[in-house]
Prior knowledge:
Subcellular location: Cytoplasm
InterPro entries: GHMP_kinase_C_dom, GHMP_kinase_C_sf, GHMP_kinase_N_dom, GHMP_knse_ATP-bd_CS, Mev_gal_kin, Ribosomal_Su5_D2-typ_SF, Ribsml_uS5_D2-typ_fold_subgr
Domain GHMP kinase N-terminal: 79-155
Main location: cytoplasm
Shape: globular
Helix content: 25-40%
Family: Belongs to the GHMP kinase family. Mevalonate kinase subfamily.
Bound molecules: (3R)-3-hydroxy-3-methyl-5-(phosphonooxy)pentanoic acid
Amino acid sequence: MKSKASSPGKVILFGEHFVVYGVKAILCAINKRITVTAEKVDGNKISIKSNIGNLELEPNKLISEIDSPLKPFYYLADKMIKNQNTGIDIKVESDIPLGVGLGSSSACCVAGAAAISKLFRDTTKKEILEMAIEAERTIFENTSGADCTVCTYGGIMAYDKKNGFTKIESEPNFHLVIANSNIEHSTKSIVAGVKQFKEKNEDEFSRLCDNEAKLIEDVLKILKTNSVGELGKKITENQKYLETIGVSNDKLRDMIQIGQKTSFGAKITGAGGGGCIFALTDTSNLNQTINELQSKNYDCFSVKIDFKGLDTF
Ligand code: PMV
């Protein structure tokens, strides 16, 4: 018996870092996906094959002793085959670049939870999301769950620590040009750097949080009107706050400057320090923005919002 599921990746449109201090962030799912195929097999091995390597282990191992980025899959499979006389083969196929803030690990957890659980029973999206967040905690203990949520349900979402998630019902038609610095970033150490900035500049940081909160409220209104130009201005403004807290670098700045020339606005997405930037475009400036970035040898591609979320088949 085989089952298959796919999940989109995500970008943070607004509010990264400030979200850690209680401000709202806005995320959206993107039309780049991870597909997981799970199959019951004879024997009692859990075997995972992916383009970043393989992992094969017997069940009942301690998760803390497994040193592999594939361990969320092992965690999910091991949990499901308790008291069942079967092994599981898992195959992971991805078109989301890894480790650059585009939600590859959350998409793995969501598609993995759906494909593996479907071998044993029917599950709701809500249950799959809970399993996916548990699995993601095996690699990022303090995950807010925001990424897994947007990957499961698709579309655009607002998230804050106090109130959790709210789906934003608008369906904007913009294109995002994502440029990848190909510098892997450690979210944890960049978040620690921002904490240091905050401790040294309490007043300034508090002002920035207020400005970001105001900006997000404006963005929520703009999303209802679908004004891509207005949204672009907010993106550029948000980038200034990210520059101030020190999460940018020369390569990101260069990509943003190039992106801003032809698009409506460009900023870092995610933790910064490496990872990706995005530029907001529509059909009038999409190709030009891609050409500008490619002419400077930057690795870039365009995405749209994914409104489907988790898909099982
Ligand atoms: O680059 P990512 O996708 O890991 O984004 C991190 C987002 C932060 O706001 C910097 C941290 C967080 O936990 O929200």
